[in-house]
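lol ok so funny story. i was supposed to be doing the assay writeup but got distracted and ended up predicting the structure for this chain instead. priorities right. anyway since i did it might as well share w the group, maybe its usefull for someone
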Amino acid sequence: MLIALGLINWRYQSAESAAAVNSLIIIAIGVVLVALLFMPMTQKIFSNRAVKVMTWLVVSGAVLFAILN
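and the output, tada:
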């Protein structure tokens, strides 16, 4: 979702000077999250409730950043 949201944000705000950097921040968070979720070493970490809550907060923050940006 974050990757798609970042690409959409990039496209619709292409006239802004900082649109590329802001969109790449959103996309990078999405890419890192997807990579961590598919790595066998880190899958066990994401079963922890505290890590799930922190991940939810980071993702929610990135979505808010995309909307308010």
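Helices lie at 2-12, 19-38, 40-43, 49-68. The chain has four helices and no strands.
back to the writeup now i swear
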